[in-house]
Design goal:
Layout lengths: L2 H12 L7 H15 L5 H7 L5 H26 L5 H15 L7 H11 L4 H6 L5 H16 L2 H6 L7 H15 L9 H24 L3 H29 L12 H5 L1
Helix pairs in contact: 1-12, 2-12, 4-5, 4-6, 4-8, 4-12, 8-12, 10-11
């Protein structure tokens, strides 16, 4: 069942129910992260624990680039739907955070510094040729979700940022300690997100709490956070299957032996 169909069904199920109060609505959103944010995925525990080899870290960084590069696309798509100038002005800095503006290089450039440091060819990373099919499908599903869903639901899908600072802190300390091929320079992306993500999440949460206008819309917003968690989780599932289980790399995807052979 598509995300759109799921949310339409939820709308029908909750149409006659009273709205959650603000505190309960926020608690329902936060409960999604406690249950299913991808810091709980086995691959992340291995990554942050220094248990992966360099080729597996390369595969993670290469595939994650697909997501990083899609973030400003989905934010630009969201802004194209917004008539409220104030909301557009607030949301625009998200694009700048990732694409850069003026002398600020942006988060995508910082991610490419990470893949450079891991020994991956930059043009190859940018091309996405080596990305897993599941990664590409998951990322594009997220972009389409933001385009197709009601605006408040689209905004709600960004609320995984509420849970991001914890994972960034774990990643910085765990990867610096666990891998001799990682240094502080290549971790710059995550350090910057320690301040950017809370700012973005606080604004988006306030917007969603204020603008969800019915119980059905509130539940759709909670489902949107679940959907986004599922996007991130499915990317890690695909990586785990391809690079931690021998013989499961799909045709055309990044093969470490071709880089290091």
């Amino acid at each position: 069942m598509s995300p759109t169909a799921t949310l339409e069904r939820a709308s029908a199920d909750f149409r006659t129910m009273p709205m959650m109060n603000r505190a309960d609505f926020e608690a329902a959103i936060r409960a999604v992260g406690a249950e299913r944010y991808h810091d709980k995925h086995p691959l992340h525990k291995l990554l942050h624990g220094g248990k992966l080899n360099k080729a597996q870290v390369q595969a993670w960084a290469l595939n994650r680039y697909c997501y990083q590069s899609a973030v400003p696309r989905k934010d630009a798509a969201l802004m194209s739907r917004v008539h409220d100038r104030g909301l557009r002005r607030e949301w625009a800095h998200r694009v700048h955070d990732h694409d850069g503006l003026g002398e600020e290089p942006g988060g995508i450039e910082r991610w490419l510094i990470l893949t450079d440091g891991l020994g991956l060819d930059r043009d190859y990373v940018i091309s996405r040729r080596g990305a897993l099919p599941a990664t590409v499908f998951a990322v594009e599903a997220y972009v389409h979700f933001v385009v197709e869903q009601p605006l408040v639901v689209a905004v709600a899908s960004s609320l995984t940022e509420l849970f991001a600072p914890k994972i960034h802190k774990e990643r910085i300390s765990g990867m610096l300690e666990g891998y001799d091929f990682i240094d502080d320079t290549v971790m710059a992306y995550f350090r910057r997100r320690l301040t950017q993500a809370p700012r973005d999440a606080d604004f988006a949460l306030a917007y969603v709490l204020e603008h969800a206008a019915s119980r059905a819309e509130q539940e759709a917003c909670v489902d949107a956070v679940r959907f986004k968690c599922n996007v991130l989780w499915s990317m890690l599932d695909a990586l785990h299957h391809a690079y931690l289980e021998p013989g499961h790399i799909p045709p055309g995807a990044f093969r470490p032996e071709e880089l290091h052979g």
